[in-house]
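F.,

This is the one I mentioned.
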């Protein structure tokens, strides 16, 4: 079965991370499938909104570390960057149901979603610095905006996880639910949106986002250039090698 499931029903396109044995970490092939699905959903009149989900124990462990190590994104056209641009510019409502770990892109993706429902087991983290990397998905812009600078520094410089209730408090999630109920709740809200006039939804979203869409896109590009360079540098090599070897990284010389 595919690592990304795409299912459209009653105007709702659901994209499911389906790689549970690797904690739904995302390979380049999965980014390509996601980018294709999002681009198709944007232009398909039968799709009125999109829902991202994992399962009741895991949303996503972020980038697949082995895949990134062996196969770093080579250009702006790499699947990961294509996916980020498609999500940031997606014109229809985007929702997410998040349970368990949401690491790296598993969290930064949510800053582009319009509505987020979390299981009470959700744990959000952006450990880019711990991996010798920098933020992506315009998170260096959007995280300080939503969390305030000092809480953003805690999340992005220390890379420590924060739980569903803290995410609710800062406004990253709309509602916290028992994990068994999060996906069903997101689907019910998506169906409600799908019954509304699409032109009104799209124009409302465009107006809410228009003030900073250009800044978001230029930040994605600038972060992407740094991220791509840093992936090849010694700190990331050490962090990724340590993860694969299940040892603590040693940054003392870096
Ligand atoms: N890339 C590749 N493989 C990953 C992965 C990732 N980001 N996250 C988890 N996996 C794999 C593990 O290597 C392990 O594989 P194995 O069974 O073949 O050894 C499997 O998924 C289960 O992971 P494990 O760490 O044992 O699960 P856990 O429940 O103890 O912890 C996480 C879950 C998500 C907290 C932990 O896996 C983790 O921190 N992953 C790395 C997250 C990360 O740094 N992502 C990159 C962001 S840019």
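My design for it:
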């Amino acid at each position: 079965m595919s690592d990304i499931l795409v299912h459209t029903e009653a105007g709702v396109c659901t994209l499911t991370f389906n790689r549970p044995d690797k904690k739904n970490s995302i390979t380049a092939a999965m980014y390509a499938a996601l980018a294709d699905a999002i681009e198709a959903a944007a232009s398909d009149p039968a799709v009125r909104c999109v829902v991202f989900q994992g399962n009741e124990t895991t949303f996503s462990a972020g980038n697949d570390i082995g895949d990134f190590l062996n196969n770093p994104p080579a250009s702006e056209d790499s699947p990961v960057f294509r996916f980020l641009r498609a999500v940031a510019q997606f014109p229809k409502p985007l929702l997410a149901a998040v349970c368990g770990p949401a690491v790296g892109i598993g969290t930064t993706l949510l800053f582009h979603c319009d509505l987020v429902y979390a299981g009470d087991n959700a744990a959000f983290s952006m450990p880019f610095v711990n991996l010798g990397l920098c933020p992506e998905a315009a998170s260096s812009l959007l995280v300080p905006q939503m969390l305030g600078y000092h809480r953003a520094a805690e999340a992005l410089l220390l890379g420590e996880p924060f739980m569903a209730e803290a995410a609710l408090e800062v406004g990253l999630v709309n509602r916290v639910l028992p994990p068994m109920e999060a996906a069903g709740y997101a689907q019910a809200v998506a169906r409600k949106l799908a019954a509304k006039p699409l032109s009104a939804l799209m124009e409302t979203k465009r107006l809410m986002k228009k003030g900073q869409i250009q800044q978001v896109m230029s930040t994605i590009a600038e972060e992407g250039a740094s991220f791509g360079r840093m992936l090849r540098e010694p700190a990331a090599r050490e962090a990724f090698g340590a993860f694969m070897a299940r040892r603590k990284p040693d940054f003392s010389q870096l």
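The domain at 1-178+198-254 is CATH 3.90.226.10 (2-enoyl-CoA Hydratase; Chain A, domain 1).

Talk soon.
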